[in-house]
Write a structure and sequence with these properties.
Elements lengths: L3 E6 L4 E13 L2 E8 L5 E5 L2 E2 L5
Antiparallel strand pairs: 1-2, 2-3, 3-4, 4-5
């Protein structure tokens, strides 16, 4: 997995570059924490599960 990804940032209101800030293996798969490079908004992704506000 890469160290950056493009994702919609609900705090900024537009597409931003998110940086991978941490990762660990859990029973559901790899848990990865992402942070917005502009405002530091963060979300967690575990496999296909995404905690961001994006629908």
């Amino acid at each position: 997995m890469s160290l950056e990804t493009e994702h919609h940032c609900p705090a900024c209101g537009e597409e931003r570059t998110f940086w991978r800030s941490a990762s660990t293996l859990v029973h559901l798969g790899e848990k990865v924490k992402w942070r917005c490079s502009e405002c530091n908004y963060g979300f967690v992704r575990i496999g296909d599960i995404d905690t961001s506000a994006e629908a």
